Amino acid sequence: MPSNSSPRSAAAMTPASAHGPSGRSPAASASGTRPASSGARYGAVAILLHWILGLALLAQIAFGFLLDDIAPRGTAARSVTINLHKSIGLVLGVVILARLCWRWLHAPPALPVAMPAWQRRAALIGHRALYVCMLAMPLSGYIASNFSRHGVKLFGVPLAPWGPDEPSVYAFFNGVHVGTAFLFCVLIAGHVVFALKHALIDHDEVFARMWPPLQRKSR
């Protein structure tokens, strides 16, 4: 889930995500967004956002799936636990928007020239799907909460629901929220598998460019 630290330029750039999400060749892109920079690695901010947000989203998804085990329905801890999940989700939603803005303004390095076109296309589709899930999951949860009388308490501060108490609307958006979480897990698993393929089988720079540098360059 990356971005490059170099500024956006009018010269050729390619859109991509974490470990190589680009539909563009070094000369042109199938994505139609921003041109790509020629840097071999993502910048420090992009790498930091990728790993922190990625780990935080995995933890939040696990938290959501374990809600009934952590605080069963009808227990005193249920409300506090649910609202903690909602609060973390809202914070992550803001971070996701910041991540997308950074990605828009800082294009990633180009994928290896030797990468087949179908792999480029698959990477582009996969990373776009990840971005859609990243946006849909917190947004659908937030909307669902606003069609419930319980609303949201942001770390204990009540936020009045802007929608009526409509169980059917709540059920729809909550279903989208849960379904997106399952889809997101599948996409993340595929993302990890292909990242490891680049690192352990292909031995190209795709994985390395998003991995934090282990040592500083000598001056």
Poorly predicted ranges: 1-39
Derived structural class: mainly alpha
> Within the largest sheet, what's the order of strands?
1-2
Span from first to last CA?
29 Å
| Helical residues, percent | 55-70%
User: What share of residues are in beta strands?
Assistant: under 5%
Give the number of helices.
6
Apparent shape: elongated
In total, how many beta strands?
2
Q: How would you spell out the order of helices and strands?
A: HHHHEEHH
Mean pLDDT: 82
Instruction: Report the sheet with the most strands, covering strand number, pairing sense and barrel closure.
Output: 2 strands, antiparallel
By CATH, the topology is Fumarate Reductase Cytochrome B subunit
**Domain unit count:** 1
The radius of gyration over CA amounts to: 20 Å
Highest-level CATH class: Mainly Alpha
Oligomer, anyone? single chain
